[in-house]
Write a structure and sequence with these properties.
The protein has 429 residues and is of the alpha/beta class. The protein contains 13 helices and 16 strands. The chain has two domains: 152 residues, Aspartate Aminotransferase, domain 1; 265 residues, 3-Layer(aba) Sandwich (Aspartate Aminotransferase, domain 2). A hairpin with a 2-residue loop joins strand 1 and strand 2. The structure holds pyridoxal-5'-phosphate.
């Protein structure tokens, strides 16, 4: 697109746009992007930034990938969209088949929606409607973990960490759920029974009111970039079974290889009753999410009072998005992606290690293709964001966290530049 005057574009952006988690009046510098290729974002002023964020976990194959471009183009000339009520189409069926093959066998059915937050809303509605159908309408509460993040819509927001999610702002409108402490057991450590003591107590006292427990398996993303031990999930599954409570895994951030397994639940070999997918599902090309559930949940809901699951987004199973998701997933599976993630992990580990020596750093941790520098104090975004851009990298910290989850196609030299820039900027900040 031609835009004659970039200063004007930035001024207009300031005037008419509201950016995510941002003020409309006190706007920090915003950088116009005109194109993205491979692992680079191209700014309007000609600078190229090495992308460390994969556009918030999504662009696992980088930008402008020929196979994904082809998938969009081919689908576009068949149809870009049709309603999904009473109609179906090959991209939806093929993608649903693929997802049920790749996820645990108990997950038999796929409900498509248009964003991660909505996939979480769908999961909540499934859990509540399931127990209603089972003649247990009292089970309407959820249990979530502190430091969790599940999205920004009301239902999803009510499951985010109560403090960082600012529950108090929304007063009585926000449903009240139960919260258990975030797991403290490290990824490669053991999970002592004590870790689940509070969860056990909550479930034993309140199970009559509880429909489901929802967690991000192994990696808590936007709520703190924390990793915890897979055995927690094994014990949680047993607890849920003991108390007649469904288990929901939110793999919207962790799905499609990011943690070194195709899905993070594979670290624990635990099957949830409901699974949410999104973000990297289309390789970052289009907005699409999916909620998978077991045959038991699907049958339970369908044979209940309503006789149907009460949800139906307008853009459900958008064919362009489904076609791209098939292409992205097939592209991932066609390569030795586990080896790639292992390489990225050792390079992140090596590249970020010097940050451990810095006074201002509390911890450096990596898992799969995720690298995190946790500082002792929150960063000053207005200062630090331009410092990254000056170093030619795109890193978007939040709070005390300076972290990277690069596109899987990033080469060793580029990743070394990225981690060096992260360490340098943290040292100066
Ligand atoms: C991003 C995210 C969501 C919300 O997805 P959106 O597409 O932003 O609505 C939900 N859960 C997790 C774990 C996420 O990382």
């Amino acid at each position: 697109m031609n835009w004659p005057d970039w200063d004007q574009l930035q001024k207009d952006d300031r005037r008419v746009i509201w950016h995510p988690y941002a003020s409309a009046t006190d706007v920090p510098e915003i950088f116009p992007v005109i194109a993205a290729h491979g692992v680079h974002l191209e700014l309007a002023d000609g600078r190229r930034l090495l992308d460390g964020m994969s556009s918030w976990w999504c662009a696992i194959h980088g930008y402008n990938n020929p196979a994904l471009n082809r998938a969009v183009r081919d689908q576009l000339f068949d149809m870009s969209h049709v309603m999904f009520g009473g109609l179906t189409h090959p991209p939806a069926v093929k993608l649903a088949r693929l997802l049920t093959e790749l996820t645990p066998p108990a997950l038999e059915r796929v409900f498509f929606s248009d964003s991660g937050s909505v996939a979480v809303e769908v999961a909540l509605k499934m859990a509540i409607q399931y127990w209603y159908s089972m003649g247990r309408p009292g089970k309407q509460k959820l249990v979530a973990l502190r430091n969790g993040y599940h999205g920004d819509t009301f239902g999803a927001m009510s499951l985010c960490d109560p403090e960082t999610g600012m529950h108090h702002l929304f007063g009585e409108v926000l449903p009240k759920h139960f919260f258990a402490p975030a797991p403290q057991c490290p990824f490669d450590g053991d999970c002592p029974e004590q870790e689940l003591a509070a969860m056990t107590e909550l479930l034993s006292v309140h199970h009559q009111e509880i429909a489901a427990v929802i967690v991000e398996p192994v990696v808590q993303g936007a709520g703190g970039m924390r990793f915890y031990c897979p055995d927690y999930l094994v014990q949680l599954r047993a607890l849920c079974d003991a108390f007649d409570v469904l288990l929901i895994f939110d793999e919207i951030a962790t799905g499609f290889g990011r943690t070194g397994k195709l899905f993070a639940l594979e670290h624990a070999e635990v099957e949830p009753d409901i699974l949410c997918l999104g973000k990297a599902l289309t390789g970052g090309y289009m907005t699409l999410a999916a909620t998978l559930c077991t045959g038991q949940v699907a049958t339970g809901i369908s044979e209940g009072e309503a006789g149907a699951f009460m949800h139906g987004p307008t853009f459900m199973a958008n064919p362009l998005a489904c076609a791209t998701a098939i292409a992205s997933t097939e592209l991932l599976l066609s390569q030795p992606w586990q080896r790639t993630i292992r390489r990225l992990n050792s390079e992140l580990e090596q590249g970020l290690a010097p940050a451990r020596e810095l006074e201002q750093v509390a911890e450096v941790r990596t898992l799969g293709a995720i690298g995190v520098i946790e500082l002792k104090e929150a960063v000053d975004m207005k200062r630090i964001q331009p410092m990254f851009v000056e170093r030619g990298v795109w890193i978007r910290p939040f709070g005390k966290l300076v972290y990277a989850m690069p596109p899987y196609i990033m080469g060793s030299d580029d990743l070394a530049s990225l981690t060096a820039a992260m360490v340098d900027v943290v040292a100066q900040a």
